[in-house]
Amino acid sequence: MFRSLKIKEPNIEIMTTKTNSTTVENHDSMFDAVIARLDVAAKIYGLSDDVTTILRNPQKQVKVSLPVMMDDGKLQVFEGFRTVHSTVLGPSKGGIRYAMDVCDDEVKALSAWMTFKCAVANLPYGGAKGGIKCDPRKMSIGELERLTKAYTVALADVFGPTTDIPAPDMGTSGREMAWLVEAYNKVHRGNFPGVTTGKPVGLGGSLGRDAATGRGVMVATLAALKKMNLNAKDVTCAVQGFGNVGSHAARLLHEQGIKICAIGDHTATIWNENGIDIKAALNYVKENGNVLKGFTGGDEIKAAELLTANVDVLVPAALQNVITEEIAHHIKAKLIIEGANGPTTPEADAILQDKKVIVVPDILANGGGVTVSYFEWVQNNAGYYWPEDEVNAKHDASMNLAFESVWNNGQQYKTTMRIGAYITALKKVELGIKARGNF
Ligand code: GLU
């Protein structure tokens, strides 16, 4: 039964249903958090136990040791990971992250999200994720190049343009992808630009790929505002993270007339109730070693205050697990667009659901990156490159389509957009699993 719900301001009226509970058990493991949501979605949708069991177990998990000669002449051995969660819908796809907290559990969780993200975005891909436990900010360019090439050589039989296709993620960029292709080409003696995506333009990269995740966040925000009968020009927004996702998202949302009142990165969080000059912030970051610290376009506030700021839209575009149970109680935004992977804990989800906050989940909201990765791979395979307008137009159409399916599944199954997104993905993966049959 549909009923009309008024949220705070009188002009915000959306259609919603009495929603099914999505409460999940408490847990420490990120992968368990994914499984908990999978189980909730599977139950609401009615997924068979067999398919649920297949999806609860990643297809392949590889751990490698990477000895690298450091600049000081000492050898350091790094841990590298790659998990292929599923190849049911096509070659596995997913980024490589460089960070100190990279571990088996995190990579497994992120790989499963990639399976669902690619399915939601209608891409002919499965899901994977990789990472190296390292602190890229403390390493020289030479050390990072040797580490990336060592990782690629160690995984040269896992990666491949038709098998498992990496991309950038936290701590990596086009630079690392160019090194990866180079090492892969040397091992396999050829030219394989489609072995990875997110490459620099000119080395097989696609126009529009760099800004794609931020662009997807912008398109998803506009689509959600439309459902809420809100006009972009009347809403305020806070963006957490000013890296590849957050900075492009803030810029593009600002271009749409949304007032960005808070931005933040790992060095500083800035608040300006009259709206931050995003162009000035971008220039500042460019000239000051990629950090916001010292930017004077607003007042500096505590990092945690950004999440509970008095704004209409919150875009967590940095780390996972930042919207906890505790924070969720204090959130004032009525719309959350998850630019990061896994920014909201399952416990916080339940609170936000009770508060009628609309959460556009990560596996939909940040799917713009992998969507344009797919376009890059298509261009690599065809050897024919598209103008940026064409990439952006195809991206926007794809994101709007994905948004509609998720929204409709959420409404049909009387659940949240997150579980609606899982159901959207499960329907496709289930079809693939059933059509392929078993051993
Ligand atoms: N790392 C990005 C993500 O989490 C992009 C993945 C890709 O392009 O394969 O979605």
Corresponding CATH architecture of the domain at 55-193: 3-Layer(aba) Sandwich
Strand content: 15-25%
- According to CATH, the homologous superfamily of the domain at 55-193 is Leucine Dehydrogenase, chain A, domain 1
DSSP helix count? 15
CATH topology of the domain at 55-193: Rossmann fold
Counting helices, strands and paired strands, the structural category is alpha/beta
Task: Please count the beta strands (DSSP E, at least 2 residues each).
Answer: 15
Question: In this structure, how is the largest beta sheet organized?
Answer: 7 strands, mixed
Instruction: Just give the CATH class of the domain at 55-193.
Output: Alpha Beta
Oligomer: single chain
Order of helices and strands: EEHHEEEEHEHEHHEHEEHEHEHEHEHHHH
Give the CA-based shape: globular
